[in-house]
Design goal:
Number of helices of chain B: 8
Radius of gyration of chain B: 21 Å
Helix content of chain A: 25-40%
CATH topology of chain B: MetI-like fold
Structural class of chain A: alpha/beta
Helix content of chain B: over 70%
Oligomer: heterodimer
Shape of chain A: globular
CATH architecture of chain B: Orthogonal Bundle
Number of strands of chain B: 0
Shape of chain B: flat
Largest sheet of chain B: none
Chain lengths: 254, 216
């Protein structure tokens, strides 16, 4: 479903991703872990086309994400191509980024109606179903500022799912939440992981959660994949000393 | 100083007629200024270098020259060269509107820049069409925030309308002058004209300040 081939991303002099190669199969739930600055979030931002690659290519569903083939050559794609590819991808942000000028229901229906052309009544019905799924059916008319962080994040998850993406990107979605609000969000994500066949890339510091729901865990360090294994393997008997150190540090912080 | 109450009372009807013109100039001038200012702010951000530089030049040019000279240019220079003649009143509205649009553009720019980056990113992630990002996400958040600043410009525009006397617009001040020329009493009409300005702009600025506090 996703393939990174020799992806390079630099911010000025700093190399964030260094010839990165990896692939994710359809329906997989993959957690990306590692110290901050190791390039995990950049991977999601590249997939969402919020950043441009400096080298290499990304494929989503067998097609280039931000390139097109012109004869023999592969060249950067135009905005039209990006718009088509973005339909396959949804993203949930650390800071929720709900639209404060719209109520909860419109936050969810706006994009399906305006970007996919779903009839408003159908979009609203779907939005209410999704709100039910995230446990907020009674908040349809509320404004984002009236909700707790955990509730806002669940709305943001519903908003991303309303676009029916093939790939869902979760960028540290519980990092900005008070500890007591994390559980509700994680429960929703567990539901999604078990009940849908959506492909998920999840950048997280919630190791227990990553261990429970992931099909695979990738440990990043300095823009490279240090370790890529099933969660049982990676968490109980990591191969690299660096992974052990990282896991120990994260567990001690709890 | 001798103050003649009768002369003061007699001048009021004409002054009120003038005040109506002043208010009309301010309302219409503000409308032109707000709309044109938004257009300028959006063109400035268009990402088309030539366009955005041209707009920048226009804004700097208008802001660096006195409004009175702009009024003269519009009234005396534009008609003979283009054949397009406007009445003194319309000239006043256009001059005030265009002049203040360059200040409004700056206000809008600040308001647009204050919309968090995350809002733009969410809009991209949801694949919203570009026009929709502006009309549904960015402007509805930016405009309420800049309303107090725009309100302040309307008040200062209101106080600047008397300079349209120079092209004969019959505003409050011009009416006061007219009364003075007819009755040879200048203290009463000019004083009352000043009082009328105060009576309108003081409550208006209190209103704007309340709006500012609500937004803060």
């Amino acid at each position: 479903m996703i393939r990174f081939s020799g992806v390079v991303k630099r911010f000025g002099e700093h190399v964030v991703l260094d010839e990165l190669d990896f692939a994710v199969a359809p329906g997989e739930f993959v957690s990306l872990i590692g110290p901050s600055g190791s390039g995990k979030t950049t991977i999601l931002r590249l997939l969402m086309t919020l950043e441009k690659v400096d080298g290499g290519t990304i494929e989503v569903g067998g097609e280039y994400l931000s390139h097109t083939r012109r004869g023999e050559r592969v060249v950067p794609a135009d905005e039209k191509h990006l718009r088509v590819m973005r339909r396959r991808i949804g993203m949930v942000f650390q800071q929720f980024n709900l639209f404060p000028n719209m109520n909860v229901l419109r936050n969810i229906t706006e994009a399906p109606v305006r970007s996919l052309g779903v009839p408003p009544a159908e979009a609203e019905q779907r939005a209410r179903e999704l709100l039910g799924m995230v446990g907020l059916e009674d908040k349809a008319d509320a404004h984002p500022t009236q909700l707790s962080g955990g509730q806002q994040q669940r709305v943001a998850i519903a908003r991303a799912l309303a676009m029916r993406p093939d790939v869902l990107l979760l960028d540290e979605v519980t990092s900005a939440l008070d500890p007591e609000l994390v559980a509700d969000v994680l429960r929703v994500l567990r539901d999604i992981a078990t009940s849908t066949d959506i492909t998920v890339l999840c950048v997280t510091h919630e190791m227990q959660f990553a261990q429970d729901v992931s099909d695979r865990v990738m440990m990043f360090d300095h823009g490279r994949v240090l370790e890529d294994a099933a969660p049982e393997k990676l968490f109980s008997e990591p191969e690299h000393e660096r992974t052990k150190e990282f896991l120990r540090a994260v567990i001690e912080r709890r | 100083m001798n103050w003649d109450w009768q002369a003061a009372a007699d001048s009021i009807p004409l002054l009120l007629k003038g005040l109506l013109v002043t208010v009309e100039l301010t309302v219409l001038g503000s409308l032109v200024g707000y709309v044109l200012g938004l257009v300028l702010a959006l063109l400035r951000r268009s990402g088309i270098p030539v366009l955005s530089q041209a707009v920048w030049l226009f804004i700097e040019f208008v802001r660096s020259t006195p409004l009175l000279i702009q009024v003269f240019v519009l009234y005396y220079l534009v008609p003979p060269t283009t054949g397009f003649k406007m009445s003194a009143f319309v000239t006043g509205v256009v001059a005030l509107g265009v002049h203040y649009s360059t200040y409004a553009a700056e206000v809008y720019r600040a308001g647009i820049e204050a919309v968090p980056k995350g809002q733009w990113e969410a809009a991209v992630a949801l694949n919203l069409p570009r026009s929709r990002v502006w009309t549904a996400v960015v402007l509805p958040q930016a405009i309420p925030r800049v309303l107090p600043a725009l309100g302040n410009y309307t008040i200062s525009m209101f106080k600047e309308t008397p300079l349209l006397l120079a092209i004969g617009v019959l505003d409050v001040l011009n009416r006061a002058k007219e009364v003075g020329a007819e009755t040879f009493r200048v203290v009463e009409p000019y004083t009352l004209a000043g009082v009328l300005f105060l009576l309108v702009s003081l409550p208006a600025s209190l209103l704007v300040r309340r709006l500012e506090r609500r937004r803060a």
